[in-house]
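explain this.
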Amino acid sequence: MDETSGQDAGPFSGRPSELIGRRIAGYRIEREIGRGGMAVVYQAKDLRLDRTVALKLLAPELARNDTFRGRFTHESRVAAAIDHPHIVPVFEAGETDGVLYIAMRYVAGRDLRHLLDREGPLTVTVAARIGIQVASALDAAHDHGLVHRDVKPGNILVAQGTDSDHPEHVYLTDFGLTKKSLSLTGFTSVGQFVGTLDYVAPEQISGKPVDGRCDVYSLACVVYEMMAGRPPFRRDDDMALLWAHQYDQPPALSAVRPGIPDAVDAVLAKALSKSPDDRYDSCLAFVSALRIAARGAATGGGTRPGAETGDVPGGPGPVPEPPAWARPVFRS
């Protein structure tokens, strides 16, 4: 490590530009490419293998928590062991100067958040094509006992595909910093989450045990947004949004975007069920059903039980009338 590595400042102090050109754990920082509340991602050069990588530096307070450090090490190893074409490969994870870091493949492209902001709603065909790649990645992670818990457009990278039949190649990223890791350390609690609340499953909000079906719900929120141009629920504040995920039925996609087959509404309703038991068992099962529905074929799913009466499937009865602060927001 060079002479700057021993400075008291540390990798997270000062302005981001101060890290450009600095060497950290065998990587030379070149530019910042992403930032969140608990981590910063840089494009960096691997000085040992002379390759470009994405280097994520986690906030220093996380490294000072022994529970998080243990969880981070375990989940990073699991993520690195997953060899899948739609999961960003993890090259290395470790600690240097009191900061945890993850080195991953650098993907030249943009994330789905930027794509949607620039191009607006996508066609059903494109949404399903992106969704099936994300679903495949999630199911592979579930097979390794890893639940992502933070599926959102910002964690889906869209790179150039191989040919006209595969115009985009999608990667799922950010397995190394899960909500489970943070909740075990006290950095999060019920009602406080890392990242946006637009895609969080009801059981995550209530603090119940989660499995891969919480990723089914989050993926369904992302797929809905890809086609509608907005997430299923929009509210004025976080508490109202949490209420909506737990109790409100999402607007039918066909009401937001005319021309969508009714069968697509039924598939999304099932994937967005409040109870995990009422959702698809896997992400691929959800997106496969969506593709069939989009072609106008019969899905056999019908209307979700309780959709007409307002009952929550698997719930204790009628949904309570939302208080004024939890009512929907309608914006043009």
